[in-house]
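Re: beginner question about structure tokens

> Can someone show what the tokenized structure looks like for a real chain? I only ever see the sequence side.

Sure, here's an example I had lying around. Input first:
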Amino acid sequence: MLKRIFAIMLRDLKSGTRDFMIIYILIAPFLLALILKALVPSAGSTTIKVAVPESLDEAVVSYLEGYAKIELLEDEKAITNRVEKTDDIFGLVAKDGGFLIIAQGNEVKGTQELLAYIMDAYENKDINLPIEVKTSDIGWKLSPLKQYGANFLIVFGSVFGGMLILLALVEEKMYNTLAAINVAAISKVEFVIGKGLLGFIVPLVGTIGTFLILDFEGLNYGMALVTVFCIALISVIIGFAIGIINSEPIGAIASMKMVFLPVMASVFGGIFLSEKWHVLLYWSPFYWAFRSVDAIILQTATWTQIAINSGIIIGLTAIVFALLSKRIRHGLN
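And the corresponding structure tokens:
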């Protein structure tokens, strides 16, 4: 049984690689994650680089390493030559009891002043200022773009598996092989499972890839995979329902795009709507997946929370299946 199921899945994967659209669906989660990573600001993007002589006091070098990336060079001449290169880097040498900043003049605006403030703070570190400095936490644990962007990619990527299923079914209908399962040495259950496997594997692999590409650390991958598996169920069901009633790929993809609307409404509604209005989104399984993934990314999720949200997703999916099961069975006959 397992051999026949995997044979169907591998056949779909092999035949699908002939179609550029299917290849794009397979790599899309990784491409989108790479684009998001390029857009997300990082701490390193604001770090200045400073070239200093090897003879500079180790206390100064140690202090600078807390604010900048340091390059140790032989002398002032070597530092000047380094500053004249195309990248943004300053030179710093001790001179006349103070420090001299060597700049080319075309550095990012404000960075030279930033280095001057850093060295001024070092030179006046023993002065007690008549002020009190306090910090406050406004609640952001990481970049909002990274947090919600990754969440959107994961929830949105769950639909890609369903698209692969409907394209495989459309191909079966185009070559008139779908009807052959009625006389083939394979049961309909095995056929459905084999066709549906990619609908789960693609979102699960895409989720892991998204987390790895975006450099998330300390996440509970078990919680994430359970959530994505549950949300992939509804995409698989919709993929079957659309695939068996369409006879050409363009129409099938156009029909599947209707699923994008509740996905985007659930995610953007969860982000921008006030908490009291979230009740308007309770009908959507994608909203509950968004809630789970958000808690997982922020590392505040518990297994109880994931179990409740997953139970709601499966319950809503059961309703969708009850509505579409007759159409799916009829299409497979």
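Each token stands for a local structural state, so reading them left to right follows the chain. Residues 144-174 form the longest helix (31 residues).
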